[in-house]
Amino acid sequence: MTTPPAAGPPAPLFGAADIRRLAAEVDIRPTKTLGQNFVIDGNTIRRIVAAAHLGPAETVLEVGPGLGSLTLGLLDAAERVVAVEIDPVLAGKLPETIARWRPERAAALDVVLEDALRVTSLPHAPTSLVANLPYNVAVPVVLNLLERFPSLTHGLVMVQDEVADRLAAPPGSRTYGVPSVKAAWYSGMTKAGVIGMNVFWPAPKIASGLVRFTRREPPATTATREQVFAVIDAAFAQRRKTLRAALAGWAGSPVLAEQALRAAGVDPTARGEVLDITAFARIAEARVDAPGAAPTH
């Protein structure tokens, strides 16, 4: 077992010059394709780590560690960090960087060269997810990791600010949609702050948002997650339509959709944006349990 260092003066974290020097050492220029925006401010890293509410015995899953800005802060706070990195150059550089900046913590880092959308196993079961996620894949990454790794009990992710608003949105709000409902299947999500653009290299064109989550049990239902998610997708594919109309294709006809909605105790003239995850689970269950119902996927 590795143990985080005892409390004392804050250990050094990367500044802008450190990040640019590390990038130059491996001839890396941040790419938009991989959503690479490296944090260049140590105080921002400390803020993220503090907001993650990590315990000293935790194993943290970090996605997209890049040059290691956040990794250093996580190793200062948790027992172990498992970092999933898709870029082979960055994945190869990270252990060397940690050995240089935190030699006493180098053994507490595992680097997995993998796409976070496809990773199915890790060397240690993570208890927390803390990550600066690429903007273009943030929602599917979060949902995939929550599905794949039930050991994740809580976490904090930094995403594009409007994505943060969607993930944490309650039913009935303007930003409530598919990400909000699907995330609620796994956890309760809340907005935990906003991070400005100037603490990144390169600076993005929009602010970032912090989203904190705590895992909870999915709604009690005989429907599968896939069946519930199929209802969610159908309901929001035609957001402005009533549920009777929006779910007609999913159910087989408007009449069958109305039957499922009424069996679930949902007004057929309502819209999906007012329903919580429990209501969507009831609709899926009502369709599954309907006499002669065709399988839903």
From TrEMBL:
Q: Which GO terms describe its cellular component?
A: cytosol
List, alphabetically, the Pfam families matched: RrnaAD
Q: What is its EC number?
A: 2.1.1.182
Q: Which reaction does it catalyse?
A: adenosine(1518)/adenosine(1519) in 16S rRNA + 4 S-adenosyl-L-methionine = N(6)-dimethyladenosine(1518)/N(6)-dimethyladenosine(1519) in 16S rRNA + 4 S-adenosyl-L-homocysteine + 4 H(+)
| Main localization, broad class | cytoplasm
The chain positions of domain Ribosomal RNA adenine methylase transferase N-terminal read 44-217
Keyword Transferase listed? The answer is yes
UniProt keyword Methyltransferase present: yes
Q: Which GO terms describe its molecular function?
A: 16S rRNA (adenine(1518)-N(6)/adenine(1519)-N(6))-dimethyltransferase activity; RNA binding
Q: Which domain of life is it from?
A: Bacteria
Could you tell me which HAMAP family the record lists for this protein?
16SrRNA_methyltr_A (MF_00607)
Protein known as: Ribosomal RNA small subunit methyltransferase A
- What is the name of the gene encoding this protein? rsmA
